[in-house]
Design the sequence.
């Protein structure tokens, strides 16, 4: 049908007839001619928006400052794919920040967040990013995950001088992206710390912390994407320095069949396994592991990575039973007033505790940081462009200024300082945002959490190692 439809369109082109009357399509000059739910193509036809796009949060006026948001709210692109609750709550966190920001505005303007659901599909995310950059003229995008962030930055945003701000891209290779596009300031930033930090902490825990039982054989089962590959490489590299810890790695495709990887892990017969993956796959892995003799409770233990911290895992009875009492790591939530204010507002707005999910505070901070960068851009140049916004981000971590908790109450004064071209020093809901302006990232302590019943209990925060691979 698709080929026949395109044949019909080409026939109409050849005949010179009006698309509106002959093929049911509207002609256009710009996307403004197509209404809010369609886009004008280079062929001057009104076609539907990219799949997954269409929802707009915040201000709706023509003078609103547009931002893009690529969130994998559904765990796949198939109709009926389940919700990824961690990323759904990350979206809620960004929307909460947007609502608070728009209550105040910057220079008399508010923000619009054009949301696209990537469905965890890298190619879909790329197409959505192209639309947001070309059609909506966004100066910045909020992105999720390492694979999507790397693809969007490398193929769309950097070349277009658009800022990419990720709340959950942790792959170490994000650090070294060439992202200046001939300018002075990098265009790729993240509120999530590099897994060079989390991986080092995991290895140190296994070597030195009695809670993990001095394992002699450590297995690693990891999702085969930039996030999983990066964390696997760092953990295994650190463990290889300790010859008494033999380690092996088994990979699996996200949303794919995990049985072969679980079988290989069972054959390796580890004392403890590090599980690097997302909620739906982690649920399947734990369920399969419950039937393997060498992965049973009592003879085997787990250590989970950040993306397993999702209540969807604990909603599955078998997976929850397998996970009980075991530990995991994640970038730490903040401990100051910024986090407490965020947690309280999030509970009031969504009736959920954001600390039950990884990266909610990082997504909240990401939206606030883009707004502060926009305040600098607007105040110093009169326009919010990607390069000027990025320049504003370099003004947020001044060691000459006392740290200020980034809350809805402090936003206006911080925005005013930046609009005047002055630097500030902010601590966000995710903790101190002491950015390295060359890499666009900040170090972060790592939370050690434990599965207890239907909850994740924070055991404590571990400082970032002074040196990482």
Sequence:
């Amino acid at each position: 049908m698709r080929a026949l439809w395109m044949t019909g369109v080409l026939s109409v082109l050849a005949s010179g007839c009006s698309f509106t009357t002959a093929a049911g399509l509207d002609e256009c000059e710009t996307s403004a001619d197509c209404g809010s739910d369609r886009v004008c193509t280079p062929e001057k036809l009104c076609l539907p928006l990219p799949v997954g796009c269409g929802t707009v949060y915040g201000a709706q006026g023509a003078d609103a400052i547009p931002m893009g948001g690529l969130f994998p709210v559904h765990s796949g692109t198939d109709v009926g794919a389940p919700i990824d609750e961690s990323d759904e709550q990350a979206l809620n966190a960004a929307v909460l920040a947007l609502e608070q920001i728009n209550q105040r505005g910057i220079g008399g303007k508010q923000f619009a967040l054009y949301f696209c659901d990537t469905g965890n599909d890298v190619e879909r995310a790329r197409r959505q990013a192209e639309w947001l950059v070309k059609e909506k003229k966004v100066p910045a995008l909020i992105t999720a995950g390492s694979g999507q962030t790397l693809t969007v930055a490398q193929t769309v945003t950097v070349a277009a001088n658009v800022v990419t701000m990720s709340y959950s891209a942790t792959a170490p290779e994000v650090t070294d992206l060439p992202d200046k596009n001939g300018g002075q300031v990098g265009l790729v930033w993240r509120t999530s710390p590099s897994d060079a930090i989390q991986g080092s902490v995991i290895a140190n825990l296994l070597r030195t912390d009695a809670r993990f039982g001095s394992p002699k054989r450590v297995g690693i089962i990891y999702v085969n994407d930039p996030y999983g590959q990066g964390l696997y490489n760092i953990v295994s590299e650190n463990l290889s320095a300790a010859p008494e810890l033999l380690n092996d790695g088994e990979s699996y495709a996200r949303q794919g069949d995990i049985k072969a990887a679980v079988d290989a892990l069972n054959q390796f017969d580890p004392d403890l396994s590090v599980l690097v993956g997302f909620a739906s796959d982690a649920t399947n892995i734990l369920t399969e592991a419950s039937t393997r003799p060498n992965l049973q409770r009592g003879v085997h233990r787990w250590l989970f990575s950040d993306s397993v911290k999702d209540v969807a895992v604990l909603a599955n009875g078998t997976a929850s039973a397998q996970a009980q009492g075991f530990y995991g790591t994640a970038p730490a939530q903040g401990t100051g007033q910024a986090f407490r204010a965020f947690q309280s507002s999030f509970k009031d707005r969504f009736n959920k505790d954001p600390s039950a999910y990884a990266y909610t505070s990082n997504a909240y901070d990401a939206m606030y940081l883009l707004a502060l960068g926009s305040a600098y851009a607007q105040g110093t140049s009169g326009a919010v462009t990607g390069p000027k916004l990025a320049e504003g981000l370099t003004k947020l971590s001044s060691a000459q200024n006392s740290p200020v908790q980034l809350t809805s109450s402090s936003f206006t004064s911080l925005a005013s300082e930046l609009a005047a071209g002055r630097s500030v020093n902010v601590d966000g809901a995710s903790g101190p945002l002491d950015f390295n302006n060359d890499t666009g990232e900040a170090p972060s302590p790592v939370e050690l959490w434990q599965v207890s019943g239907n909850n994740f209990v924070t055991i404590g925060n571990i400082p970032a190692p002074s040196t990482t691979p």
Notes: The mean pLDDT is 91. The first strand starts at residue 38 and ends at 40. Residues 52-192+359-428 form a domain with the Rossmann fold fold (CATH 3.40.50.2300).
